[in-house]
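Appendix C: a fully annotated inverse folding record. The material below is reproduced so that readers can follow the format used throughout the book. The structure is listed first as tokens, followed by the designed sequence.
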């Protein structure tokens, strides 16, 4: 096997953040869900020729860009299948889940303690993108 392939990058990747871009069916609906239900702040609205095409969101260090699906690949295609984003927070997992539910969110799974020492819940956005929200692992 080639040394570069087996060893990877010299010293390895040292990323500081990960941001995701999600193509959504209805940008205003998804923006409202992420802001009002999931608690993301709206950083910026992106317009082209006076038309809203994307919205930048932030939740702590996590950044999301929501873009309006242009329909080129079919508007009824399934989104989010086989894909999950993991969010770790120092917030109380049970209180956060309860706040999401009281804001109209529907949990895919209620908070539960995992054997490796984290507490997690799962939620899906209006397009089917899945998030697992967890506490940090115990030291």
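Designed amino acids, in order:
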């Amino acid at each position: 096997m080639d040394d570069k392939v087996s060893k990877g990058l010299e010293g390895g990747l040292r990323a500081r953040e990960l941001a995701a871009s999600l193509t959504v069916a209805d940008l205003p609906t998804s923006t409202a869900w992420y802001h009002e239900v999931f608690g993301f702040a709206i950083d910026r609205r992106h317009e082209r020729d006076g038309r809203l095409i994307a919205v930048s969101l932030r939740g702590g260090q996590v950044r999301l860009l929501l873009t309006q699906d242009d329909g080129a690949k079919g508007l009824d295609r399934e989104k989010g299948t086989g894909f999950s984003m993991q969010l770790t927070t120092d917030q109380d997992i049970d209180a956060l889940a309860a706040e999401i539910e009281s804001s109209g969110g529907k949990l895919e799974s209620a908070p539960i303690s995992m054997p490796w020492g984290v507490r997690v819940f799962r939620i899906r956005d209006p397009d089917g993108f899945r998030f697992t929200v967890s506490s940090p692992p115990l030291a």
